């Protein structure tokens, strides 16, 4: 009986990961540009099901959802895979912070604390990732001069790597995190009973 219960639990978890990945994949195609942000930095709401899956099943499940979504999306990428890599790094970081904090505090205050802390962490991680990984990688697809020229057309203050991080990557991740915080909190209020009753964070 115990083995059957474990198998049933694993099956349910895999099923939920698949459902959240499918929803997240669809939502990733609803991209919106943000004012004064570089043209290739666009917001999409696909992070909401990722954060909810982290609260439901823990960070490892949320990372799995993110990975599936980004692997599917890379098939139609316009950034040579850089956008998907950035999304995976940022949302994995976000989901780890959210999952760990929510695991300690299962209420609305916990959700707000987790998502706000996740937002701040993502801004920091995003700055490092852009400097040492993402922009160097993207420069193999598009020359640095062309990248910053495209950014300067939207925001003249972005004239180099440091300016891109300061006026592009950091504010974008902060804005993205805050929007996801609001959307996740609003949806959490509707699903609070389910989150607390049926599945405990791992």
Low-confidence parts, pLDDT < 50 over ≥5 residues? 2-7
Number of strands: 2
Helix-and-strand structural type: mainly alpha
Anisotropy-based shape: globular
The portion of residues assigned to helices is over 70%
User: Largest sheet, if any?
Assistant: 2 strands, antiparallel
Number of domains: 1
* Name of the top-level CATH class: Mainly Alpha
Give the helix tally.
7
Q: Distance N terminus to C terminus?
A: 22 Å
Q: Give me the CATH fold name.
A: Arp2/3 complex 21 kDa subunit ARPC3
DSSP strand (E) fraction?
A: under 5%
CATH architecture: Orthogonal Bundle
Query: In angstroms, what is the radius of gyration?
Result: 18 Å
What would you call the quaternary organization? single chain
How are the strands ordered across the major sheet?
Answer: 1-2
Average per-residue pLDDT, rounded, comes to 89
The ordered string of helix (H) and strand (E) elements is HEEHHHHHH
What is shown here, in short?
By secondary structure, the chain is mainly alpha-helical. Helix content is 77%, strand content 2%. Helix 4 (82-104) runs antiparallel to helix 5 (108-138) and helix 5 (108-138) runs antiparallel to helix 7 (161-197).
């Amino acid at each position: 009986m115990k083995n059957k219960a474990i198998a049933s639990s694993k099956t349910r978890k895999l099923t939920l990961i698949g459902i959240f990945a499918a929803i997240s994949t669809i939502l990733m195609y609803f991209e919106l540009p943000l004012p004064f942000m570089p043209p290739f930095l666009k917001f999409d709401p696909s992070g909401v099901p990722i954060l909810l899956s982290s609260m439901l099943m823990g960070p490892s499940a949320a990372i799995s959802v993110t990975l599936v979504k980004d692997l599917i999306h890379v098939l139609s990428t316009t950034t040579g895979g850089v956008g998907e890599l950035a999304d995976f790094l940022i949302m994995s970081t976000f989901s780890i912070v959210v999952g760990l904090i929510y695991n300690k505090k299962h209420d609305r205050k916990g959700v707000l604390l987790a998502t706000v802390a996740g937002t701040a962490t993502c801004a920091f991680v995003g700055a490092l990732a852009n400097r040492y990984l993402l922009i160097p990688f993207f420069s193999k697809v598009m020359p640095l001069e062309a990248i910053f020229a495209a950014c300067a057309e939207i925001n003249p203050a972005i004239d180099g790597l440091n300016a891109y991080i300061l006026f592009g990557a950091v504010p974008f991740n902060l804005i993205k995190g805050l929007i996801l915080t609001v959307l996740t909190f609003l949806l959490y209020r509707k699903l609070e009973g389910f989150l607390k009753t049926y599945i405990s964070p791992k």
